[in-house]
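Changelog-adjacent note: as of this version, every example in the card shows the full chain rather than a window. The one below runs 88 residues end to end.
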Amino acid sequence: MAILLVPESLSRFTNGRSLEVFVQTLNEFPEWLKKEYNALYEVIFFGERLKGFVNLYLDDCAVTHRVREPLPISGSSSLRLVTSVSGG
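Full-length structure tokens:
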């Protein structure tokens, strides 16, 4: 089980808390999120890709453009969503 850290801007979709993610590889994450937290999935994904305002990190490595790859996720891993701020 990994932990998904959710920024405050998206916390309304997770009741203000981080999530326990039950996947073994990164490419399983979108389907898991769609099943367990569909509202959050709909906000951050466009088809099979993350929307442009969202970045995803796996243990401090940017994996935004690798979300469909079978990268291993260990029980001690953390996933982190980072959103862009608009309005400059």
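Structural remarks: The CA atoms of residues 10 and 40 lie 7 Å apart.
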